[in-house]
Design a protein that fits this description.
Blueprint: E1 2-6, E2 10-16, E3 19-25, H1 26-37, E4 41-45, H2 55-59, E5 63-64, E6 74-81, E7 84-91, E8 105-108, H3 117-126, E9 130-132, H4 135-138, E10 139-141, E11 147-149, E12 161-164, H5 166-172, H6 177-186, E13 191-196, E14 199-204, E15 207-212, H7 224-239, H8 242-258, H9 270-281, E16 285-288
Parallel strand pairs: 1-4, 1-8, 2-6, 4-5, 8-9, 9-12, 12-13
Antiparallel strand pairs: 2-3, 6-7, 10-11, 13-14, 14-15, 15-16
Helix pairs in contact: 1-7, 5-6, 7-8, 8-9
């Protein structure tokens, strides 16, 4: 099976305590390499500059076309304190174009303004199954280049699945957590994923299914959401079962956190994810909404 990912690669400087780590990343890398763990072929639509080491993409057999830019790669300075993090934009690469491609599913997960409304519309027209992480649509920068979220009008028609956290949800739709999930569903989204730190919920029709990730010590949270999204998307496309997709996604996020690794090194192997997914499957709670 094949997945198309639309997102920027990035070069991140991650600060945890007194330690700085320069890592390649961006949702393009996290989503793409996670999908490869599930034996998906990956077509990556991205942009990066001459400062980006493409060997990592090549080593993971990820296809990328027309990705080179004269501008340097999008770069963030990320400061992590437990489950909280702050981002500062240090460089912004060129936007991403659209090319029609024959794939089983699409992930749109911008990190900062790289996907225009016009390109987003073309992707929606081209997609059979579309998963959206809207984070990069909502991000703005202040006068010091710190990243903040801003209320944003998004056309989410023809989107099959979305993942938001509480801060992102309130920039798209009003209301409590449940009201926000229902408002997103009313926009036509079949699978609404709501992640609130260790609490993960999925609204399908009139039921909310939820799992709780074990509350252990957290190290580097960069890319955890991307690993979660890619795993959910791949499992849905392969298994056509949203409960397994939820449990696999939670299992992947937990495995990545348990690894205590930084950057892309935390992307878990499929076997570890499967073990965690089986554990979560027996602990899923559900309620009517």
């Amino acid at each position: 099976m094949k997945l198309a990912v639309f997102a920027h690669c990035a070069i991140d400087t991650i600060t945890i305590g007194n330690y700085n780590y320069e890592q390649i990343g961006g949702s393009a890398c996290y989503c793409g390499i996670t999908a490869r763990q599930f034996n998906f072929d990956v077509d990556l639509f991205t942009k990066f500059g001459p400062d980006f080491p493409t060997q990592y993409l090549s080593d993971n057999k990820i296809n990328y076309i027309n990705s080179n830019s004269e501008k340097n790669t999008t770069k963030f300075a990320i400061s992590i304190n437990g489950s909280d993090r702050t981002l500062k934009l240090e460089n912004e690469c060129d936007p991403i174009g659209h090319s029609g491609v024959n794939v089983d599913g699409h992930i749109v997960s911008p990190i900062y303004h790289e996907i225009s409304d016009n390109v987003f519309k073309k992707i929606k027209d081209d997609s059979n199954f579309l998963f959206v992480d809207p984070q990069g649509f909502l991000r703005q920068k202040d006068s010091q280049n710190n990243i903040i979220l801003q209320n944003t009008e998004l056309d989410l028609s023809h989107v099959n699945a979305i993942k938001v956290n509480p801060e992102e949800a309130q920039q798209i739709v009003p209301g409590t957590h449940d009201e926000a999930m229902m408002a997103l569903q009313k926009k036509g989204i079949e699978y609404v994923l709501f992640t609130n730190k260790t609490e993960v919920s999925l609204l399908v029709k009139d039921k909310v299914y939820s799992i709780t990730l074990p509350n252990k010590e957290i190290h580097d949270t960069t890319g955890i959401g991307d690993i979660f999204c890619s795993t959910f998307c791949c499992t849905m496309l392969k298994e056509k079962d949203f409960l397994w997709a939820l449990c696999f996604a939670g299992g992947a996020a937990q495995a990545a956190l348990d690894s205590k690794n930084v950057g892309l090194q935390k992307i878990p192997k499929k076997g570890t994810v499967q073990t965690n997914a089986s554990y979560f499957y027996n602990l899923v709670k559900f309620r009517d909404l």
